[in-house]
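In practice, a research group might receive sequence data for several interacting partners and want a quick structural hypothesis before committing to experiments. The following worked case mirrors that situation: the sequences arrive first, and a predicted assembly follows.
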Amino acid sequence: MASPGSGFWPFGADEGSAAAESPGTARAWCQAAQKLTGGLGNKLCALLYGDAEKPVETGAKAAPGAAEPRPVCTCDKKPCGCQKADVNYAFLHSTDLLPACNGEITTMSFLQDVVDILLQYVVKSFDRSTKVIDFHYPNELLQEYNWELADQPQTLEEILLNCRTTLKYAIKTGHPRYFNQLSTGLDMVGLAADWLTSAANTNMFTYEIAPVFVLLEYVTLRKMREMVGWPGGCGDGIFSPGGAISNMYAMLIARFKMFPEVKEKGMAAIPRLVAFTSEHSHFSVKKGAAALGIGTDSVILIRCDERGKMIPSDLERRILEAKQKGFVPFLVSATAGTTVYGAFDPLIAIADICKKYKIWMHVDGAWGGGLLMSRKHKWKLNGVERANSVTWNPHKMMGVPLQCSALLVREEGLMQSCNQMHASYLFQQDKHYDLSYDTGDKALQCGRHVDVFKLWLMWRAKGTTGFEAQIDKCLELAEYLYNKIKNREGYEMVFDGKPQHTNVCFWYIPPSLRSMEDNEERMSRLMKVAPVIKARMMEYGTTMVSYQPLGDKVNFFRMVISNPAATHQDIDFLIDEIERLGQDL
Amino acid sequence: MASPGSGFWPFGADEGSAAAESPGTARAWCQAAQKLTGGLGNKLCALLYGDAEKPVETGAKAAPGAAEPRPVCTCDKKPCGCQKADVNYAFLHSTDLLPACNGEITTMSFLQDVVDILLQYVVKSFDRSTKVIDFHYPNELLQEYNWELADQPQTLEEILLNCRTTLKYAIKTGHPRYFNQLSTGLDMVGLAADWLTSAANTNMFTYEIAPVFVLLEYVTLRKMREMVGWPGGCGDGIFSPGGAISNMYAMLIARFKMFPEVKEKGMAAIPRLVAFTSEHSHFSVKKGAAALGIGTDSVILIRCDERGKMIPSDLERRILEAKQKGFVPFLVSATAGTTVYGAFDPLIAIADICKKYKIWMHVDGAWGGGLLMSRKHKWKLNGVERANSVTWNPHKMMGVPLQCSALLVREEGLMQSCNQMHASYLFQQDKHYDLSYDTGDKALQCGRHVDVFKLWLMWRAKGTTGFEAQIDKCLELAEYLYNKIKNREGYEMVFDGKPQHTNVCFWYIPPSLRSMEDNEERMSRLMKVAPVIKARMMEYGTTMVSYQPLGDKVNFFRMVISNPAATHQDIDFLIDEIERLGQDL
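A structural hypothesis for the assembly, expressed as tokens:
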């Protein structure tokens, strides 16, 4: 199959040159279009030529410092955008944009020009013939352009140039060969929703100033709780700025549930708490414990099996041990989809233990929660319905633009009791509408960005079945990769067996290491292979995939697939590229 | 002065009707334009007519379920967008958008149509003849439209309708008469920057995946530290999801600086800490103390003078008292710009006390920090350069789109030591570039949204002097309001004297209360005045301003001006509106 983008896009790989060479036909159209009144011809030409080239046959030039485009538009449809091509940004500043008096046309033109730059970037992001990254070292990049902030304003022309330059050096995270993080891809409906969110520019703390978004959060969280398996979608929750904060919320609420006096009196007034999570869990559990005054020493890491799943018998042993020492176990954070191996902890066995010892069960499904959308794969989270709280990041496996992370809590009202401070200047109690829709006092944040709209709109556009298809496809691709390399010469798998999530962990063994004995020298050479290949990938800009050491395992590649743009051919490309870049090592 | 928008925009106040009636001239152009080849005429007509009306003389209709617009474009400039008007969204789904094979044209058309909706919304936001809000009670709004999430996908036509409906019920936060929060206004360059940020869709944790944005954060934080007055802009910092989290960071770092063992061992291992802040300070100080395991009882509220400024002698007295009880004072959180009164605590006197008792001095300048941009007003923050940490929210007084909050820390490296967890899968130590640019391990968050670009681009566009002019104008308007009502019949000021920030706090006294004695009955009636006027404002949708009680003071209006679109006439309008809506109470 030919890659969809190849051959379609006539521009070079360099994003700095936003304007392509103008084909003769377009020039001819442009000349014909000039005969139209009202500046329509100019508008047309600008669309054809981009910003860098001015339309032909237009004598008008904006006077220095002029706030208004000339000649004045005579069409009677406002805003018409007719004169976009006449706006000379070299003489305009941000003060010429709205709310400037009569700033409508300049504003529309300027925003449209930014959008044209963005549309070019977006379309190019999906084109396999462009680079994922135009890599520069930090010092190079600092010197490449003047990024400094000054006293005096820049012109709008310079602002448009800043936008182009920024995108030139950005990573194309929507590129079909960008596999570097758990969050990859660029969803078009999600992007549109994020643009709308920016234009609405509001804050989630009250219904008063975010009526629709507050209701959409309500609707969406209820739906997510339904998918978790809580009857009727009952419970509570919030969208938070990322999985680490969601996990911290869970820890905070679990502590409050057991010792509500901690809110006023602090940790000094309660027994020493301990939390449990697996040795493969995300570092945010420890980070949260440090922040909340619990301390990282009180996070006990439970052993995992060779696939990275928590061993329930070890959990129970460590709980008993802690209790014997007089500590109070208050939280088990199970992981549904670990960061490196993509492992799912055995939630049913863990739920049994939590029930037995009356411990809050949290499931960190930041990465794996998306599988709840798939009838084929959701069994991997069996037992999640018994959790007290669940972290689920739609910005990972569901491809929602960053950030979008939900914390779901089974018991309603607990978040509010735990976090409320009754600020009368924000949460007035004598307002004229139902105050239960004011969500701000249950949050740790005061102001809170609208993260829900992009998820809601994508869900409307795809339906649950659309998310399911997208996720199933990514898992199928991971299996394809696994099957392709498990017996291939030059590869060693980090763990045996089919991947449970889209994480495929492997070493590439360059020819020079293949016949070596498995000794320390080989390890120390193998350790350097992935970093060098990765550095070369970035310098060529062809693809990006992550690597890391883990425990006694030296640097290995962790391939993850959450990018809906990826195909079998992209997986083939990745393998070819690793071999091309690593064969001499 | 006539309001810039009035009479310009021919559409009604109802955003649902996106298409205006087509003027005859436009129709004539449209027919002429049809003669152009390559679908250009259609494009032109669509621009003129909006989405709701199809262009004339186009016989082509998309077949049911067709993923491709017809007729096929023959122009040789890609992407051309020529065929926007031919795309029949009723038969298209999100699966027809990129990364769909040959999805470029459909994608460009769809995103352009979303942008057209947004541009209309943006321009209308500044038009005083439109409502600030089309208010509906939560239950009404839930019933007004089907917001539910389903298994099956919606068409792109329905998605565009969802966007229009969402905006119909949204608050126009950029409206010149929206004064409800500390964050108001809609900056056009900020909006453009936020759109770019969404298209780049990346994460701040490493230079690897956000090279430009990481450098811009570095440049911008350094500049902000310079403005605070730290030599050479040295120090540390981070953009966090809001002022409450920034304040929590400060508390976390202050605690770690004094007792680094708290990270591993928790609060159980260290003495009982106490923090000090004024009774007018933001609730996030207490919220942070609750979360960090310090407890709200350990936040000692210092008395304020009648203008809402912390009384330094009371601070010193309470510090000594706490020490006598054996507690350890670890943090003073001074406020530069309180939420309700806009008061600036006396930072120099507080700095002296902090120095004397070796306590971390934090300045919560979430609201007042913006005044550092103004040569005329920055003296109000004199002493801020002696702080150990500063919260400063550019999304408030500087009008940057939500969210944009910076925490600045004087000592470099402390944030990293405090928060780092050395996750090897994210912060590999053998990468090929300078790792000091990987910011993720000093954050509480793992994934972190790019909040810096909108501030950086606005700063480039305005220059420091542009921010200064914008801020000075808001303060001048606040003074205008103060002068207008201080001696006006029917008004009482909550505190005497010129406002220090843009907060103007006052009661409106309806005629029926003006001759009443100052007794309990009058208080109980006055208490209800502001809520009723506010409810009426929202129902009419003409303006929005906040009210609250404070201490023994019953509900009063807190007017704040951070909206660059506001003019003297808008202040006049607000006063007229309060009197119109409140005269019968």
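Before designing any experiment, note the following. Chain B has three domains: 82-171, 194-419+434-451, 463-579. Confidence is low (pLDDT under 50) at residues 1-83 of chain B.
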